[in-house]
Amino acid sequence: MTPTLTTDELLTTTRTVRKRLDLERAVPLELVSRCIEIALQAPSGGNAQGWHWLVVTDAAQREAIGDIYRECFARYEASKGFAGNLHADDPARAATQQKVGTSASWLGQHMGEAPVLVIPCLQTGRPLPEGNQAGLWGSLLPAAWSYALAARDRGLGTAWTTVHLMREAEVAEILGLPEGVHQGALLPTAYFTGETFSPAARQPVSEVLHLDRW
């Protein structure tokens, strides 16, 4: 598929896709591979390129990961930090948050049905250090987002989630991950239903931009 979006369109319409993931349509592995190939152009600290990508298409493995995700999501859904509970006292945002919560709950039940699960990982060869890990994950997460952008430009939808990391070790066992390889996200990938996506409502730049000082 030839990319057709402008840069601005791509950056403003790459949405988290949940209910609009087409769970019935197969996704060609070569298309996912091309998106990862593009993602590998992202920066990494010291040009270390310590990333690895688990692309899960096997039905039994997807189901097993989906079962873990469903159970982890139930814990998240019951927490104060659940997306559907945020900004409840702000009428301008409460309805949107409830919509996000409903959508997230749907994905919580259907994660294992997505035709492709992509799990970007970072190989450190050791346990994660204590304290500030921003530099460490900064060598993986830009590439993971580049994957989502490349997928969007090729008619695929993704959803960035980390809920499964409550039980990361169990997912690692399913995938046969060696010690010292750490999962950064879970990206269900599928063709999306409907026509396209629009930019989302966001805070004005004037409310979040700080010049020189807070």
Quick rundown:
By secondary structure, this protein is α+β, with helices and mostly antiparallel strands. The protein has one domain (7-208): NADH Oxidase (3-Layer(aba) Sandwich).
Task: Describe the protein's topology.
Layout (H helix, E strand, L loop, with lengths): L6 H7 L15 H11 L11 E6 L2 H19 L13 H20 L5 E8 L10 H4 L3 H12 L3 E3 L9 H8 L5 E3 L3 E5 L13 H4 L6
Antiparallel strand pairs: 1-2, 2-4, 2-5, 3-5
Helix pairs in contact: 2-6, 3-4, 3-7
Organism: Rhodococcus antarcticus
Family: Belongs to the nitroreductase family.
Protein name: Nitroreductase family protein
The secondary-structure element order is HHEHHEHHEHEEH
What structural class do helix, strand and pairing data support? alpha+beta
CATH architecture label name: 3-Layer(aba) Sandwich
Described by the principal axes of the CA atoms, the overall outline is globular
Number of folding domains? 1
Rg from Cα? 18 Å
Percent of residues in beta strands? 5-15%
Count of extended strands: 5
CATH topology: NADH Oxidase
CATH superfamily: NADH Oxidase
- Uncertain spans: none
Largest sheet: 5 strands, antiparallel
Annotation field: number of helices? 8
CATH class annotation: Alpha Beta
| Proportion in helices | 25-40%
Distance between the termini: 45 Å
Average pLDDT taken over every residue: 95
Pfam families: Nitroreductase
Protein name: Nitroreductase family protein
InterPro entries: Nitroreductase, Nitroreductase-like
Keywords: Oxidoreductase
